[in-house]
């Protein structure tokens, strides 16, 4: 699996790995890059079966597979310890990594994640699957913004949404891959083991998320020992895009509490 490795701002800078949601694209995090790259070595990737990592996923593809593939790819690059920043499905990959490879995880940032799929979120995915079956990739992509963004934000950013739709259709991961990845997401249940996680964990959610109720993040925080919950009042499911400035402030605040970074004076003395 191909990774995109950013330059380290200084020798020995902590590594953060960005993991997207069901869309799987590393480009999902563009609004966070400049804020993160000043302090950390940033690694992005397109998840297997998407974007720059095309493949036909096997039946029975699982969250364990997703975590193992990422861990192996990082090992190949000589990265043995890192903080995982994950959104939705990416947050589940982070939980799986922390359970399967605890020695590799310096911290977790879980954005709009969950322990197991909420009844409301299951309803949303059933509707989306019916759209996919009836209208194909175009119907899936056209409905996507409704679950990601606040209505007023969509109204203001209509040209951007049109461009995103065209790009998403051009790079659609394929119905088979999408359904296998979605099945892995739906089958994931961390409610019985998440208490084993001991790495520093910050949880960020948006109160107005239509797809994943913010209370799912509250449940995560209650279950993971020592974890911290930060609730944004608006931003919806893709709050890191729609309210990027506020999100980045919370993100860096949490990361700096988990991962020691050099001050400007210390960097200049190197």
Automatic annotation (TrEMBL):
Catalytic activity: carbamate + 2 H(+) = NH4(+) + CO2
One Pfam family hit: Abhydrolase_1
Gene3D superfamilies for this protein: alpha/beta hydrolase (3.40.50.1820)
EC number: 3.5.1.-
One of the GO biological process terms: uracil catabolic process
Signal peptide: none
GO MF term list: hydrolase activity, acting on carbon-nitrogen (but not peptide) bonds, in linear amides
Organism superkingdom: Bacteria
InterPro entries assigned to the protein according to its UniProt record, in alphabetical order: AB_hydrolase_1 (IPR000073), AB_hydrolase_fold (IPR029058), AB_hydrolase_sf (IPR050266), Pyrimidine_utilisation_RutD (IPR019913)
Enzyme class: hydrolase
Keywords: Hydrolase
Annotated ranges, domain AB hydrolase-1: 14-119
Family note: Belongs to the AB hydrolase superfamily. Hydrolase RutD family.
Function, in words: Involved in pyrimidine catabolism. May facilitate the hydrolysis of carbamate, a reaction that can also occur spontaneously.
Record's protein name: Putative carbamate hydrolase RutD
């Amino acid at each position: 699996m191909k990774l995109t490795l950013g330059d380290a701002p200084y020798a020995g800078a902590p590594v953060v790995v960005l993991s997207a949601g069901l869309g799987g694209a590393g480009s999902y995090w563009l609004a966070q890059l400049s804020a993160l790259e000043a302090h950390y070595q940033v690694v992005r990737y397109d998840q297997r079966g998407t974007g720059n990592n095309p493949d036909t996923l096997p039946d029975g593809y699982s969250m364990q597979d997703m975590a193992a593939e990422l861990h192996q790819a990082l090992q190949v690059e000589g990265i043995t310890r890192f903080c995982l920043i994950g959104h939705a499905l990416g947050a589940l990959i982070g939980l799986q990594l922390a359970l399967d490879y605890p020695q590799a995880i310096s911290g977790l940032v879980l954005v709009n994640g969950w322990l197991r799929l909420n009844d409301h979120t299951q309803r949303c995915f059933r509707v989306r699957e019916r759209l996919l079956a009836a209208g194909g990739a175009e119907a899936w992509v056209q409905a996507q913004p409704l679950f990601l963004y606040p209505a007023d934000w969509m109204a203001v950013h209509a040209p951007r949404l049109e461009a995103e739709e065209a790009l998403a259709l051009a790079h659609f991961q394929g119905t088979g891959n999408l359904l296998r990845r979605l099945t892995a997401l739906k089958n994931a249940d961390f409610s019985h083991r998440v208490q084993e996680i001991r790495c520093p964990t910050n949880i960020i959610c948006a109160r107005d998320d239509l797809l994943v109720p913010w209370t799912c993040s509250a449940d995560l925080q209650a279950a993971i020992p020592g974890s911290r919950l930060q609730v944004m009042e608006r931003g919806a499911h893709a709050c890191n895009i729609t309210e990027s400035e506020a999100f980045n402030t919370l993100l860096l605040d949490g990361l700096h509490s988990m991962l020691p970074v050099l001050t400007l004076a210390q960097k200049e003395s190197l």
